[in-house]
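Researcher: Go.
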Amino acid sequence: AALLAALLAALLCLPSLRGPLVFDDVPAVASNADALGLRTWWQLLRNDFWGRPLAAEDSHKSYRPLTVATLRLNVLAHGVACPTGFHLVNTALHALVTASVSLAAQALRRYGGPTHAEGVATAPSGAWAAALVAGATFAAHPVHAEAAGGIVGRAELLAALLALACVACYCGAARQMSRQGPRGHVGELAWVLLAVLLAAAAALCKEQGATAIGVAIVADAALERAKAQGATSRRRQMPKWLPGALRRASAASVATAALIVARVRLVPGGGRPRVFSAEDNPMAFADELSTRAMSYAHVWARNAWLLLCPSRLAADWGAAGPANQEKLLIRTALDWRNLASATVLTALAVLTVVAIRSPRRHELASAYL
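Model: Structure:
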C-alpha cells in the first residue's frame, strides 16, 4: 500500500519537472549566496533561509540550514540553470512522505484491532485498505501542490518526513518497554532521545517541525491508553500506561529544553524574534482582543475548508496585499464567518469527546490521530 501510494505521488508530480524557478524559488536559490555555494558551509549555519545573517535587523529569522544544505547540493550537482534536478528531489521527497503517511495509517489501524492477552495488537483486515486510502488521499490532495511543485516547498517536505519519523520513534519507545519490561528503560530512553533529535532536525528544515515532539507525546499517550482500554473490559482501574507515558514525556521535555537553550545560545541572533509589521500580519496588530480572537479562530475554519474543498488555492498566500488581508479581520460577533469558526471548533470538540467516551475508543483514537 505504501509503495502504491508513493508511486501515485511521484506520477502526479511529473508535470512539475519541467517547471522553472518561480516566486520564492528565485530569492531562495538563484539569489541566495548560501545555496549557490558562494559562502562557506559554516556561514550557512549563521544565516537565515534567504541568506541574510540572523543577527541582522532585516533578517527573516527563518532558520532552515538543512533545507538550504540540500539546495546547495543540488546546485553543486547540476547548477541553477537546470531546475529539473530540484524538482526531482522534491518529487522523491513527496513520495517518501506519502509512503510514511501510508505506513502511519496502517500502524494506527493495527492499534484499532483486537489485542492479545500479552498486549500485542493484531492487524485487522482493513489495515491495508486504510493505508492505501490514506496514502492516496495524501498524495493527490491539491493543497500539497505548493509544497511538492515549488522548490522552496522542500522545507515542508523535509520537515514532514522527519516529523513522521520522530513520531514513529517516540511511539517505538513504548514498544521497547512492552517487549523487554523493566530492562527496556535504556532502550526506551534511546528511542525518546532519537525522536527529540529528529524533531530538532525537522525544525532545522522548517520551524513548525519543532511541534513534532509535542504531537509524538500526545500520540503516544493516546495510543497507549487506547491499547490498554482495548485489552481489558473493566471500566475503572489504575491506568497502568500513565507512568510510562509521563516518564517518556518528561525525558523528551528535558531534552527538548536543552536543545532550545543550545539553539538560542549558539546561533548568532537566534534568540531575537522577527519584527513583523501590520502588513505582514494584520491580525496581530488589531486593536481589540476580540478581533484578534475571532480572526485567528477563523483561520482554523479556512484551513479546514481547504482540506475539504480545495477549490481556491494560492501560490503565495502572503501576496494578497494589505487591502485583501484587512478583509480577513473579523471585527464584530455578528459576522457570519464566526459561524464557520464555531462549527469547526465544535466538530473537533465532539470528535475528541466521542473518541474518549465511546466503547470503541481504542479504534476511534487511532482513526482520530
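Model: The chain has 16 helices and no strands.
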